[in-house]
Design goal:
It is a single chain. The protein is α+β, with helices and mostly antiparallel strands. It has helices at residues 39-43, 57-60, 85-98, 103-118, 143-151, 155-163, 180-210, 237-267, 282-289, 294-303, 309-320, 355-360, 365-374, 378-383; strands at 2-7, 13-19, 125-126, 133-134, 166-169, 172-175, 219-224, 326-327, 339-343, 346-350. It has a three-stranded antiparallel sheet with strand order 2-1-7. A hairpin with a 5-residue loop joins β1 and β2 (13-19). α4 packs antiparallel against α7, α8 (237-267) packs across α9 (282-289) and α10 (294-303) runs antiparallel to α11.
Length: 400
């Protein structure tokens, strides 16, 4: 993210705003051993929550006190020595107050976050020889029941939409039964999408409070907060996304700090020979961004119905294999890595398994329609306002 403090031409403070560059959505539902998910998930289960509302935050969010009841957020590190989650929840509470959030908005935020991590407990089974996913336990104390309560929808309708969504075939609406894997993936997709929308809404709300629209902004003082460059034992879609964004921001920073700064020297008549600090990042960035570069090929393959990880890998190698920054894999820890990139910060070997699915990260429109049109949570309805959802007239062959 990029945090700017704005000033008028006379140096008067004109407010502040936040620009977000990358939210790692995949971290919401899976982590490697050395990582953890977003800190808020761990804060929700802390003692301090008892002081936040009469029934206590854990009770309000239909949560247990055991983080391992939530598979989405407990695959990696659940505790970090340098972080006191209880104290951090206090800071979160203070931030909501300072930034002028209404109580309802704040609790909607907490409860939707709890809903996201509770989604991980929704399990589907098949009956007999049929591949059709079913979910038997949807009472108020079950995971689906709790997700439905937190999102303000009917549990039965929600689960039905996950198991038997409606899709349009030509001009007809038909029911398409889902396998357990498809239904489970759809739950993850909805969970990630809700978190993503809550997060972006939070930034908008902060910016509304922090910026003074009546003042003319002439200069700013800023902090660029970039995630650490990641080289793990296994590097996938998450790592290449982070490392690309880092590379871009590093180039932006170098350009701003060194190029723009040096131009100032020249203007001021200082005897100075221009030094270029930015170009050693350009080769990798161009490879990502050019037509038929990494991102273009990924987008194209994501749209192609028959594309596979293998076809994506082959296209990358055919298009980029001769570039000096596109290398053969050289990982000692991931023998199946497919290629390596020579980044500004070092050489990283990447594994393309699952990139197409992660890039698409589709949402089940039937579930979105239920959230949009039936939820009793005002924030949730607001968050999905830009999504078309689905027409709610009954399809012709309901139940087939």
């Amino acid at each position: 993210k990029f945090i700017r403090i704005h000033f008028t031409a006379s140096g008067k403070l004109a407010g502040c705003d936040i620009v977000a560059y990358l939210l790692e959505k995949s971290r919401i539902t899976e982590q490697q051993e050395v990582e953890r998910s977003y800190h808020i998930f761990y804060q929700l289960l802390q003692e301090y929550g008892k002081t936040i509302c009469p029934e206590g935050l854990i009770e309000k969010c239909h949560c247990s006190t055991d983080i391992y009841d939530y598979i989405y957020v407990s695959q990696g590190k659940t505790k970090v020595d340098s972080i006191d989650d209880n104290e951090e929840l206090e800071y979160t509470e203070d931030a909501f107050k300072v930034l002028g959030f209404e109580e309802q908005e704040k609790f909607d935020c907490y409860m939707l976050t709890a809903a996201v991590m509770t989604c991980g407990g929704i399990e589907f089974k098949t009956k007999g020889r049929d591949d059709q996913a079913e979910c038997e336990l949807i009472g108020p104390d079950s995971y689906p029941g709790k997700v439905a309560a937190l999102t303000g929808v009917d549990a039965f309708a929600m689960i039905k939409a996950f198991c038997k969504p409606r899709i349009k075939v030509g001009t007809e609406w038909v029911i398409k039964g889902q396998t357990c894997e498809q239904a489970t993936n759809a739950v993850g997709g909805i969970g990630r999408a809700i978190y993503d929308r809550v997060f972006k809404w939070l930034i908008e709300k902060c910016n509304d409070t922090l910026i003074d629209p009546t003042l003319k902004k002439a200069n700013f003082c800023a902090v660029l907060d970039i995630a650490g460059f990641e080289i793990f034992e296994y590097n996938g879609f998450e790592q290449i996304s982070i490392n690309f964004v880092n590379e871009k921001l590093q180039q932006f920073f170098n350009h701003h700090m060194f190029v723009v700064e040096q131009e100032e020297y020249v203007k001021e008549g200082i005897d100075w020979v221009m030094v270029d600090f930015g170009m050693d990042l350009a080769a990798a960035i161009i490879m990502f961004e050019k037509p038929m570069g990494i991102w273009a090929i990924l987008e194209e393959e994501s749209l192609f119905p028959k594309a596979t990880d293998k076809s994506f890998e082959e296209k990358l190698k055919a298009s980029l294999g001769k570039l000096p920054v596109f290398l053969k894999p050289q990982s000692k820890t991931d023998k199946n890595a497919h290629f390596a990139i020579s980044h500004y910060a070092g050489i990283v070997s990447y594994n393309v398994t699952g990139w197409l699915e992660k890039n698409k990260d589709p949402v089940n429109d039937s579930v979105v329609e239920i959230l949009k049109s039936t939820s009793s949570v005002p924030l949730l309805v607001h968050l999905w306002r830009d999504h078309p959802g689905q027409p709610t007239t009954a399809p012709k062959d309901d139940g087939k």
